[in-house]
Specification:
The protein is an alpha/beta fold. Helix content is about 45%, strand content about 15%. It contains 12 helices and 7 strands. Helix 1 crosses helix 10. Belongs to the short-chain dehydrogenases/reductases (SDR) family.
């Protein structure tokens, strides 16, 4: 086996390369020698092998762009997403329905030994509380039917952000069971608050005091690069036996919650009272 850390000679696609984690990921992949083909709704400033403008709400455009890029790939990086300042249906259509369609269209083109990684969120850490509902939604194959389901379950979906990220976690774990038999891996990361342009939207919705709770125990937001590096690792041969994993990248936040050292409801209550 060659250098398990290298992307030399690898051909990859990345959704969401305009800014934030996706831009950091694309820049590092180019530096590592990968042939990087990116898509986003806004043009990328990274020196990519190709860039195509794509709105993930447009299913027909997703299918067309995959065919236009064409060829086989070694890795798929899913970094695109909308915050909850957008309408809930649009949030779910981009964060889950569109990314799922994009990924499923690439799967037949992924070389054996290849991998997929998707950015979820630590907002999805309690997905098991409504697992049956999420499984029902994730099982819907047709994008139009999935969008109709979202509209019919407005109370469950709420602002769309947490729900869409939980759906990504369920889908990633389910697909991991099937894809490993084809020699393809799929994983996700669950970032904590990260210093990207999208953070202003989260501040608008939640407020800085609430975001500070989710930045515990480190007491700071991560950088885009600190989120990009684990994505690149998970799609590299160095992670060759890691699949179906949803990896918290949150500076020990999840560990603190799981062991009772960080009491999120109490901290949020105190933040709101203060």
């Amino acid at each position: 086996m060659g250098d398990v850390w290298s992307y030399e000679g690898k051909r990859v696609v990345i959704a969401g390369c305009f800014s934030g984690m996706g831009e950091a990921c694309a820049r590092e992949l180019v530096r590592l020698g990968a042939e990087v083909h990116g898509v986003d709704i806004r043009p990328s400033q990274v020196d990519l092998a190709s860039f195509t403008q794509l709105d993930l709400k447009d299913v027909a455009a997703i299918d067309r762009v995959v065919d236009e890029i064409g060829g086989e790939v070694d890795a798929v990086f899913n970094c695109a997403g909308l915050p909850q300042t957008f309408p809930a249906l649009d949030v779910v259509r981009v964060n889950f329905i569109g990314l799922k369609r994009w990924t499923e269209r690439w799967i037949p083109r992924i070389r054996k030994g290849g991998a997929i990684v998707t950015v979820s969120s630590n907002a999805a850490m309690n997905y098991q509380r409504r697992l049956p509902l999420l499984q029902e939604f994730v099982a819907i194959a047709d994008p139009a039917e999935a969008a109709a389901w979202v509209s019919a379950h407005a109370e469950d979906v709420a602002d769309g952000y947490g729900f869409s990220k939980e759906a990504l976690v369920v889908w990633t774990q389910q697909r991991g069971v099937d894809l490993i038999k084809q020699g393809i891996r799929i994983n996700a990361t669950l970032p904590s608050p990260t210093a990207t342009p999208m953070m202003k939207d989260f501040e608008q919705v939640a407020g800085q005091k609430i975001l500070d709770v989710f930045a515990l125990p480190s007491g700071r937001q991560s950088t885009a690069e600190e989120q990009a590096w684990p994505l690149i690792f998970l799609n590299s041969p160095a992670a060759g036996f890691i699949s179906g994993v949803c990896l918290p990248v949150d500076g020990a936040f999840t560990g603190g919650v799981n062991t009772g050292l960080i009491d999120v409801p109490a901290l949020i209550g105190a933040a709101m009272a203060g």
